[in-house]
Amino acid sequence: MTTQHLYLLTGASRGMGLSMALQLMAPGHTLLCISRTEQPALARHAQQAGATLLQWCHDLADSSTLGPRLESWLREQGCTAWRSATLINNAGVIARIGPLSQADPANLAQALRVGLEAPMLLTAAFLRATEGWPAERRVLNISSGLGRRPMASQAAYCAAKAGMDHFTRCLALEEALKPGGAKVCSLAPGVIDTGMQLQLRSADPADFPDQGSFARLKTGGQLTSPDEAARRVLACLARPGFGAQPVADVRD
């Protein structure tokens, strides 16, 4: 029986994505990371861990060519090589912090493409290419509490994560109708001490009314480290009941 497990992960070069990539590396695991830049630490760790690593450099704001590339690559792998296949849509960016009326069109479009368009296109490609595989298939979308509650000056990020939650709900209904359908979940990982948090607490309070709240999360020690957040997220992914709730929170 094969013991090979395949993981596809976006946004693996920093933050929680990097921590997840490092923690996923083990003998018998193949990890394809898709980020804007390569991360040398991943290559070193893969060699030490006995895992297979591929790194694709691609800006997810331009995902129109990435979906076909991923689909083609998956079809080349063959359906019998894997015991499981998992797509983790982790990459995300925040647009310029400020009211929507002041948004730069290109900046706004980039945030929505990375945060919503790319996960949908990659998920569609993943499901098409692996349809009929005997492997257990899972799709984990990294969402946010901001997809479930509104916040001023964060319209693009909130909308992208809300869209991610709802497309996951739709996808769960579709896959439940198929024999061997994929298990899917849009998971909020909690508040994490990453560069995105730094952007939020460093914003001008005149542009971002909630700036003080984010600053207090840091000073109050309420932020989870990327390593711990990755452990919690991957523990949820590994649960036998993964996907029973299409939209979930790691703190539940």
Write the layout of secondary structure elements.
Blueprint: E1 5-10, H1 15-24, E2 29-35, H2 40-49, E3 52-57, H3 66-77, E4 84-89, H4 105-130, E5 136-142, H5 155-176, E6 183-188, H6 195-201, H7 211-219, H8 226-238, E7 247-249
Parallel strand pairs: 1-2, 1-4, 2-3, 4-5, 5-6, 6-7
Helix pairs in contact: 1-8, 3-4, 4-5
Question: Gist?
Answer:
By secondary structure, the chain is α/β, with parallel strands linked by helices. 43% of the residues lie in helices and 16% in strands. It has a seven-stranded parallel beta sheet, with helices on both faces.
Termini separation = 35 Å
Strand content: 15-25%
**CA-based shape:** globular
Please outline the major beta sheet: 7 strands, parallel
Count of alpha and pi helical runs: 8
Secondary structure class reads alpha/beta
Can you count the beta strands? Answer: 7
Helix content: 40-55%
What is the string of SSEs from the N terminus onward? EHEHEHEHEHEHHHE
- Chain-averaged pLDDT: 94
Radius of gyration: 18 Å
Q: List the strand order in the largest sheet.
A: 3-2-1-4-5-6-7
Unreliable runs: none
